[in-house]
Amino acid sequence: MKISWGTAIVMAIVSFISFIMFFVITMSTDEAYSHDLVVEEYYKTEITFQDQLDKTQNATLLSENIQLEKTSEGMVITFPEELEFSKIKGNVFLYRPSNKQLDFEIPLSLSSNQLLVPDKNLLGGRWNIIIDWTYGEEAYYFKEDINY
Q: What single Pfam family name could you report for this chain, choosing any that match (predicted)?
């Protein structure tokens, strides 16, 4: 059976379209290729960016900033010793870029100038730590990327 050049072109185009559609469907449905936005309400968060810059500037004016230390019990977050720990309020948000189901938030309720994030909550890999906190009337913001 001989195939004419017109039939061959149509078969080539149909094959190419089928090939592309296979990859589009695979990329859309496979969990391995599922990449979500960093935050759900991106534009709403972007509006508050200047506030974050102001809070970050306040944090740089402290004599020492927040320190992070990995220990056998977990991640120890140390607040400046010059501040009275009972007046520190805010939240610690731990964001895992590779899996949003692992993200969690800890409200700050300190009994000393240190906060321990238990080792069982932190899997090995990259984490973004965001600490949005206040001391008295001043607001502060701390953000750091770590490999745990």
A: FixH
pLDDT at 99: 79
Cα separation, 41 vs 53, in Å, equals: 19
Q: How would you label 66-95 residue by residue, b for 16+ Cβ within 10 Å and e otherwise?
A: beeeeeeebbebebbeebebeebebebebb
Cβ 34 vs Cβ 26: under 8 Å: no
Q: Which residues have CB under 8 Å from 63's CB, separation 6+?
A: 80, 82
What is the rounded distance in angstroms from the CA atom of residue 81 to the CA atom of residue 66?
Answer: 10
pTM: 0.68
Backbone phi, then psi, for 140, in 5-degree steps? -135, 155
pLDDT tens per residue across span 93-115: 998 887 778 888 989 888 888 88
CA distance 126 to 123: 9
Give the residue among 103, 126, 98 at the shortest CA–CA distance from 34: 98
